[in-house]
Amino acid sequence: MSEIVSIPIVKKKLAGYVGFHNLPNQVHRKSVKRGFQFTLMVVGESGLGKSTLVNTLFNSSLYPNKENKEPTHETPKTVDIQTISADVEENGVKLKLTVIDTPGFGDFVNNEESWRPILENIEARYDAYLEQENRVNRKRIVDTRVHACLYFISPTGHSLKPLDIEFMRQLAARVNLIPVIAKSDTLTEDEIKAFKVRILEDIAYNKIQIYQPPIHDNDDPETIQENRDIISRIPFAIVGSDKEVEVNGKKVRGRKYPWGVIEVDNEEHCDFIKLRQMLIRTHMEELKEYTNEVLYESYRMGKLTRGGYDVSSETSGMNPLSKFEEEKLAHEQKMAKMEAEMKAVFQQKVAEKENKLKQSEEELYARHREMKDQLEKQRLELEEKKRRLEAGRPGTPEKAKKNKGLFK
Ligand code: GDP
Q1: Is 320 inside any structural domain?
Q2: Where do the Septin-type G domain residues begin and end (predicted)?
């Protein structure tokens, strides 16, 4: 067997121009050509400003204008999963954006299981990816995995609700959770500060892992500071508005109150800028990477191990193909057994139905016979009646005959 020999790495200075400093440009050109893709999920009770925030984040009307729509009074029965896709472009860079909304979440009398359909949807997307990865042809893998989930916390100013905690606990291992305080313009600055502290305490107490930009020691000081600034704003207190208002003669995106204007794009008024910075400008790729390398990977490992395919067999020398064949055979046997059972049930049901039909046919015959006999009886009775009537009526041939005999 050949031995792997580690080769010592020697740092060399180049004597002249080679050109690989251009590698980042090559990657840049390729990725711009290919375009980018990002999937964002928004979760929270209805009316917390989810669609407004998405429109505000991407500065476009991704959501149809809800304010002009007739309100529906129908209460959905379950949490729905709705997807909106849009191709957005900025300075020649194309982004295929998918927003997944979850209307109905938290809107029922009993919201205990509200998190379940959302978790199932996220896992189904991992399954679809895994299935594509396992195909022989893996050229065109479509990635529909959720890269980040904005969780909208109601601006109560108290602490997290049991539903918030349950949702985050259940989803944290599967998706990059980004908690936001919705409609933070309805709280004062002090209320927001205290609310944030309590939310972070609840999150820590329940050992919920939320997404935070990583701090790497080898990053440049500017990046480290930027990331620290972002972290210090979590959970982001946000204000959304897709309408412009006037401030000192200038049009800005914001919400107008009798006491003044809350500006969306003003870091002193809310954390919208920091959220957008993290989500779009600085950490979109990092969110995708974390989804792929950590969250999806742990799901994939768990799934393969649970499914009987022991990952350690890859290293223990067992042929994965024979394992696969074995599983295939077991699966086929299971399917054949199910099919036989289904056939038996079907035949039994058909026999039962035939018996029932026979029985009702016989019943019908009996009733028919009974009715026929009855009618015959009635007919005979009527005939008898008729005969008797005719016998007693004057002018009838029989009576005339009798009368003739009398007056001779
Ligand atoms: P969704 O059901 O969660 O998608 O909520 P919408 O985005 O449809 O918003 C519901 C209502 O809240 C609309 O009338 C919005 O104008 C309003 N709204 C949205 N964001 C904010 C916000 O940040 N602050 C305040 N005060 N109202 C908001």
Answers
A1: no
A2: 34-306
Contact 149, 179 (CB under 8 A): no
Structure ipTM over 0.85, yes or no: yes
* Total count of domains within the chain: 2
Using the mean position of ligand 1's atoms as its centre, give its distance from the Cα of residue 256 in Å. 13
pLDDT in tens, 107-160: 777 777 889 999 999 999 999 999 998 888 877 888 999 999 999 999 998 889
Q: 339 CA distance to ligand 1 centroid (A)?
A: 52
Would the CB of 46 count as within 6 Å of ligand 1? yes
- Write the residue with the smallest CA distance to atom 7 of ligand 1: 49
Burial class of residue 92 in the structure, from the number of CB atoms within 10 Å of its CB (0-12 exposed, 13-18 middle, 19+ buried)? exposed
DSSP 280: I
Give the residue numbers spanning the domain of 383: 326-408
The string of pLDDT tens digits covering residues 3-17 is 666 777 777 777 788
243 assigned to some structural domain = yes
6: in domain:
no
- 179 and 273 share one domain: yes
Point out which residues pair with 179 in neighbouring strands: 151
pTM of this prediction? Answer: 0.72
Residue nearest to atom 19 of ligand 1 (CA): 49
Our answer on whether the CB atom of 51 is closer than 6 Å to any ligand 1 atom is: yes
| Sign of the Cα pseudo-torsion (387, 391, 393, 396, in order) | positive
- Pocket of ligand 1 contains residue 52 by CB under 6 Å: yes
Degrees, nearest 5: CA angle 194-200-205 = 125
* Alpha helices (H) in 206-319, listed in sequence order: 221-233, 272-276, 284-290, 297-306, 313-316
